[in-house]
Amino acid sequence: MLQAAALPRGERVLASAAGSDGSWLLGTRSRLVLLDAAGEVVRLPWEQVEDAGWDQETSRLQVREAGEFGAPRREWTPTVTEQEPRAFLELLRERVTASIVVQRQVAVRGKRGVVVACRRNPTGGPLHWTATFEPGVEPDDPEVRAAAEALLARVRAELGELADTPADDLPSIS
């Protein structure tokens, strides 16, 4: 089953965790690889992992993919066979954290608002921009849209020259 991961030449697994259903989670320097029990393979660059959480009581890992606003975001919740897959969880946290170049939030409705993030794979590559609207904050609201656009401009200004490098998925806030 693990051969199905078909990692690129020179890439190797740094940590892994087995799912109770026969699935596998593999972590490399540049990506998270999810192999489900049926053999489907998802290769997710670290900068595309929006968040992940570990529930020790149920041995469940939750991984959510970053995505376009309004589009369903893929999520995986495997139950892991180990009590606590320490090496895999450490790699997951380190790689996701290392992908964040900058992340800022602006409140629009009470404490809720929009989060603009600029991420890059820890091994290098293009910038990836995301705008995440927190629950209860409607992106179609002109006030919200204006706040999101102002935040994006402020974050890009903070990055200076780095922000001028080509970004392959600058968020569409309009």
Report a brief summary of the structure.
The chain is of the alpha+beta class and 174 residues long. The protein has three helices and ten strands, in the order βββββββαβββαα.
Q: How many domains, in number, for the residues?
A: 2
CATH-derived architecture of the largest domain: Roll
In CATH terms, the superfamily of the largest domain is Pleckstrin-homology domain (PH domain)/Phosphotyrosine-binding domain (PTB)
- By secondary-structure content and strand pairing, the structural class works out as alpha+beta
Beta-strand content bin: 25-35%
Indicate the radius of gyration in whole angstroms: 18 Å
The CATH topology annotation of the largest domain reads as PH-domain like
Give the N-to-C terminal Cα separation. 44 Å
The largest beta-sheet arranges its strands as 1-2-3-4
Question: Strand-and-helix sequence, N→C?
Answer: EEEEEEEHEEEHH
What count of helical segments does DSSP give?
3
Major pleated sheet: 4 strands, antiparallel
Helix content: 10-25%
- Write down the CATH class of the largest domain: Mainly Beta
Shape: globular
Q: What is the residue-averaged pLDDT?
A: 86
Stretches where pLDDT is under 50 for at least 5 consecutive residues are none
Could you give the topology of this structure?
Blueprint: E1 15-18, E2 24-27, E3 31-35, E4 41-45, E5 49-55, E6 60-65, E7 75-76, H1 86-98, E8 100-109, E9 112-119, E10 128-133, H2 142-159, H3 161-164
Antiparallel strand pairs: 1-2, 2-3, 3-4, 5-6, 6-7, 8-9, 9-10
Describe what this molecule looks like in 3D.
The chain is α+β, with helices and mostly antiparallel strands and 174 residues long. The protein has 2 domains: 2-97, PH-domain like, CATH 2.30.29.30; 100-164, no CATH class. The protein has 3 helices and 10 strands; from the N terminus they run βββββββαβββαα. The strands form 3 sheets. The protein has a 4-stranded antiparallel beta sheet, with helices on one face. The chain has a 3-stranded antiparallel beta sheet with strand order 5-6-7, with helices on one face. A hairpin with a 3-residue loop joins β2 (24-27) and β3.
